[in-house]
């Protein structure tokens, strides 16, 4: 098993720390790079030698930069790691990203001191989250010394191999406000949120054959058992519904997708009901564990990363567990519909009509637009309890990825107020979202079926992401609602950057947790 990094928050001098390495932030300025205020004592130790040293090493202070050099006794730590902060060392997003870069740039150190901007509780949280997230690796299927003929075992690490390990690291966040109660609270909460993101990443990174709907539901149940174990643990309720129960409940949308696979669908429902809850938030996450496109089959190359099509469900579940760990006085009901969209003799067909939860009928046109069918049922269930706010999160449409790229998600909803809640939360969480409209003409398109109440997809090339949101709106009963389309954001197919690794990103978890915090503050 990989080692677990431990974190400590304390005051102290970065020049006198006895850690194996000290990380110092470098600010870019038009006059040249300078050390950030948190690392001022390191600069004083080097004195006049610092500027020519930075120049000789090519240090600029630009974001994403990392330069490592031995200190030769100038400061107590034998290794100095310089990471770029960009032009503003008070920007929590830049600090979070720099801390992530630092986590990947400290070689073979058992202890590290982080002399990054941490003069406020928000910056303390940014350093902690960034370092924890940036150091993430997924090694379950990696081997150190593969033997001849080694093969994958599926659920376990590859057979006949020695699994990789990563030594534990003692990380110290140096902060002038380390003794303040609000800084300590931010430090501890940041670890809860970051570890929830890591849980989400683990699930999204898992190969689809090892995370079918029943196995995904089992994984959530195992995580729930760990969460609720022991005296004083949060009391989160869980219910796992199988295909027979879904049929009894009239969830035709989930079944229309899941019936194509030998691995039957599931619906996981979580409940967090603290006694002094100030509001009720419902979360819904798309959990398509693999998406072949069904009978509207995808091109082969488009299937490669479809194990990530359950990232919405993973984010919603992980965020719910984090909300409970934080003890937020907010009632949360979470629905994670899970299905595998495969090709078989039991697949739904274009032209089929499906009856959703609540009785709405839907004409199917594109079996690769399956996510909205899962979400329709789950949203219908969520609104039956009349929550104060409903938020769904899904890798829903390629249209939004084309529009916004793979680092910015789309947010749509019932009105500007609901969207602004998400936008404010995403800005604080460092997960950018962009508001998109649901034009009135989309209602005409969604209701244009000649044989059913709704048309699942109309094959018009333009505005497909907006059409999908309009379709989902039909199942929200007019309640306050926000829809997060994170297509493309769930998986980083390139190299690591900032606090984001290659592979699963865990995008959306931090935004949902921050949204819950904001809702509590708004209602308190």
Q: Describe it for me?
A:
The structure is a single chain. This protein has helices at 40-46, 50-56, 92-105, 121-134, 181-205, 213-227, 243-248, 252-258, 311-326, 371-383, 398-404, 416-429, 441-446, 464-473, 509-523; strands at residues 6-10, 21-27, 34-35, 66-70, 79-86, 111-115, 170-174, 236-241, 266-272, 280-285, 287-291, 331-341, 353-355, 361-363, 389-394, 409-413, 433-435, 454-455, 481-485, 491-492, 503-504. The chain has 524 residues and is α/β, with parallel strands linked by helices. The chain has two domains: 6-175, Leucine Aminopeptidase, subunit E, domain 1 (3-Layer(aba) Sandwich), CATH 3.40.220.10; 199-523, Zn peptidases (Aminopeptidase). The strands form four sheets. Strands 8, 9, 10, 11, 12, 15, 16, 17 and 19 form a nine-stranded mixed β-sheet that branches. Strands 1, 2, 3, 4, 5, 6 and 7 form a seven-stranded mixed β-sheet that branches. A three-stranded mixed β-sheet has the order 13-14-18. A hairpin with an 8-residue loop joins strand 4 (66-70) and strand 5 (79-86). Residues 146-166 have low confidence and may be disordered.
Tally of domains: 2
Structural class, by secondary structure, is alpha/beta
C-alpha Rg (nearest Å): 24 Å
Query: What's the story with the biggest beta sheet?
Result: 9 strands, mixed
Task: Write the topology of this structure.
Blueprint: E1 6-10, E2 21-27, E3 34-35, H1 40-46, H2 50-56, E4 66-70, E5 79-86, H3 92-105, E6 111-115, H4 121-134, E7 170-174, H5 181-205, H6 213-227, E8 236-241, H7 243-248, H8 252-258, E9 266-272, E10 280-285, E11 287-291, H9 311-326, E12 331-341, E13 353-355, E14 361-363, H10 371-383, E15 389-394, H11 398-404, E16 409-413, H12 416-429, E17 433-435, H13 441-446, E18 454-455, H14 464-473, E19 481-485, E20 491-492, E21 503-504, H15 509-523
Domain Cytosol aminopeptidase: 200-513
Biased composition (Basic and acidic residues): 153-163
Keywords: Aminopeptidase, Hydrolase, Protease
